[in-house]
Amino acid sequence: MPRVLSRLILPCVVLFAVLASSASNVHALTIPFKSGTGIAGGPDANVRLLPLATTCPVGYPTVFTNADFAAAYSSPPATILSFIHPAWTPVLACDQTAQWIGVDAQATPLSSMITVPFFVPAPCCIGRATLSICYMVDDALGDAINPGGCYVNGILVPAVTGGNYAVQTIYTNVDITGAVHCGDNALYFYNRDLGCAVNGMIFSGKIEITSCFDAAKPSSWGQVRRTYR
Fold this sequence. Notes:
Elements lengths: L2 H22 L3 E7 L8 E9 L14 H8 L3 E4 L20 E2 L9 E9 L5 E13 L1 E2 L8 E3 L2 E2 L12 E7 L7 E10 L7 E12 L9 H8 L1
Antiparallel strand pairs: 1-12, 2-3, 2-5, 3-4, 5-11, 6-10, 6-12, 7-11, 8-9, 8-11
Helix pairs in contact: 1-3
């Protein structure tokens, strides 16, 4: 091969390899979650719950702080309901394996903070993180004092709020990139009791994470040129 031609071809081949290597460093992580892993009347294996009041229909009296989220993270398991109110739709259309959960098996009406821990393996470089969820709730996510009913690591996700117990509410690909980090994380729901009759929540969803490029590995076009000029 003529020397001039080789000087033109080799950088192109190497650049293609560099780009291919860079692309291979981008990984996707999907973290599914749902309520009701276990049997009716028993504890949820993956979801925790902290009652926020002792009577109904009282909500949390102040704006949530980091201490409140820490207490919720350390709370005991939620209880899978054995009593499903006749007015409730019993299962989600998006996931019929999810179950209603609450403070106890009989759906006692108390406002609560629901915690879903999740883990992102380290080392990681998070380029984008999104939340998709379908749920039903009695009575609703959030109230006047804490309008947002959904948080990631204590950071409000304002797009996810409201809901009802008859028709599932769906949110898809909500951007939570700035709230997620490597290691232990938590998704929180503030289930506000309003009707003082029953209280519960059922949900299913996923968190999707795409990693960014590892800046230490790919070479630049300038580095390729210096190598083969």
